From TrEMBL:
SUPFAM superfamilies: MOP-like, P-loop containing nucleoside triphosphate hydrolases. This is ABC transporter ATP-binding protein. Residues 4-241 form the ABC transporter domain. Keywords: ATP-binding, Cell membrane, Ion transport, Iron, Iron transport, Membrane, Nucleotide-binding, Transport. The lineage of its organism: Bacteria, Pseudomonadati, Pseudomonadota, Gammaproteobacteria, Alteromonadales.
Amino acid sequence: MSLLEINNLTCRYEQNTILNDLSLTVSDGEIMCLLGPSGCGKTTLLKAIAGLITTASGEIKLKNRLLLAGKATGKNINVDANKRDLGMIFQDYALFPHLTISANIAFGIADLSKTQQKRKIDELLELVSLEGLDARYPHELSGGQQQRVSIARALAREPKVLLLDEPFSNIDAQLRLPLIRDIKAILKQRNMAAIFVTHAKEEAFALADTMALLNNGSIVQSGAPQHLYNYPATKFVAEFLGHGSILTAQVLNENQLRCVLGDVTCTANKTLVVGETVDLFIRPHQFSVIANESGNGIIKEYQFRDDGYRAQVAVGEQIIEVWLPGYFDVQNTKTVQVKLTPQQLVVL
Ligand SMILES: Nc1ncnc2c1ncn2[C@@H]1O[C@H](COP(=O)(O)OP(=O)(O)OP(=O)(O)O)[C@@H](O)[C@H]1O
């Protein structure tokens, strides 16, 4: 069931349209990652949902309660940020430095009795694995621990949706994935919906039930991460979610294509029309590459990554990027045979 519903939202800063007639829904318990290049409007969208900025038009509903309805709807509703039932977590944790961890968490629940507050703080500290640290101050905790406190503080008010703006960008790369796993488990345990803003697709893949890809103030595509990866609606989506090479191919029949690598049997993300010329978007792992002195490809360059090599290979006039396993003898190999095995291909 849809929990948060955003309809035709437009936001402007001065003359610049930042969000353009944007619509989006988030269901109960859904973790959505909002992804997109720098400056595309991700933070602006979170702030608009949270009620922290003025919007030009549009409607926002939370569990069928209108939080925002522009003048054009004849309703002119704009619920205050602190009455929206939303929790917001920022990149810099935004903890109060002069308050202990326990006082930071208690901040939003001052209306509860002292006993109720204590019970809630203990429960939340256990949830975020910070038991026993309640008397410390934020500067006495690591970045990851501070981010857990900010999550505990946001959860204390039992918001219907959590909004997180690049919450992992100040966390060491090594600690990021374990922290993401923990936070995902906490959200799932509470069946809490969340919208995460990030521009790191690895974070989004690790965390998201759904992803929404934003560009120039509009959602370009949304859906399950694997759906966007396998069925990108546009070249922008395909490239944003992973490097790839573009190969031109002729459609021989509905599941056969001819390209510089020969004839390929495939299924495609789009219906293929016989005789048509199409662009294929092929990711490095999709090529099969073996050393072969009379092969069709010449290795031009290579770089070692943590999962093997990325190599630029010339096939005829085309340069393609392929993946090679870490044990590949790339220093002593010049010529390779590159093939496209039968598989699901992305046609742009
Ligand atoms: N207060 C403001 N006044 C004027 N323009 C602003 C303001 N805040 C943001 N902008 C502009 O709005 C656009 C979208 O900004 P926003 O912060 O939403 O992008 P973002 O996708 O979150 O970017 P990043 O990934 O770099 O954080 C940018 O062009 C930015 O310069």
